[in-house]
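=== RUN LOG ===
request id: a7f3
mode: sequence -> structure
chains: 1
length: 256
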Amino acid sequence: MEKIGLSIERQGPLAVLRLDKARGNAIDEPLAEALAAAAKELDADDAVRGVLLASAHPKLFCPGLDLVALVDYDREAMRRFFVRFEEGMIGLYALRKPVVAAVAGAAVAGGCILALTADHRVIREGSPIGLNEVRVGVPLPWWVLTMLRATTSPAALTDVALLGRNFTDEEAREIGLVHEVLPAEGFEEAALARLEELANRDSAAVGTTKAWLRHDALEEMRAGGPERRGVFLDAWFSDSAQKRIRETVDSLARRG
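=== RESULT ===
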């Protein structure tokens, strides 16, 4: 499968879901839609025993939402994008197959959310990971917070969710944002080795156990997310958030 900025590469029983998009894999509407479709495709394919989330760019993972593409969306267009993004992330989180994220570079905001869908996250040394939404002036979506609470140390939630800090290396590992910090040399091969270890277990046993492990979080994400979308959209279109978003877009334009 090849889609806008996304491909599925088959490596025997493993599938590499690879981001390959301009602007550092920033997530726009076509990419959000492609991620949702890929999650469904991978879930339905019994030949796939494990999935690696990876980037075609050796020093990039995903910097978050594509603000350049989204800045001029009106409320209805932004609601449509947000639903597609939510569907893709929840679809990946719900996969009954092991998922490993090979975070080869910055994974902030939406990029961190994408990484959090995985069962095991390896990050390249020196790469920042974190959720900076509150620094832009928007709340973390309900379903993201649910996933975060199920993943990271409770003591770290203030720094991660309220202060919007980015973390690197051992600090990121200690709080649970990642499981391993690896050097650049042989990085993706090492991530694939972790995936192979998980994929070599009995697939039915792994699938059932993973579904049970994530059942409560998924129920909460699906039940609470839709009714809280309006709160997120209100914040997104507030004067203060729009000012910060446009300042960020202008900064990106100056960098070329």
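=== NOTES ===
The radius of gyration is 17 Å.
The chain has one domain: 2-187.
=== END ===
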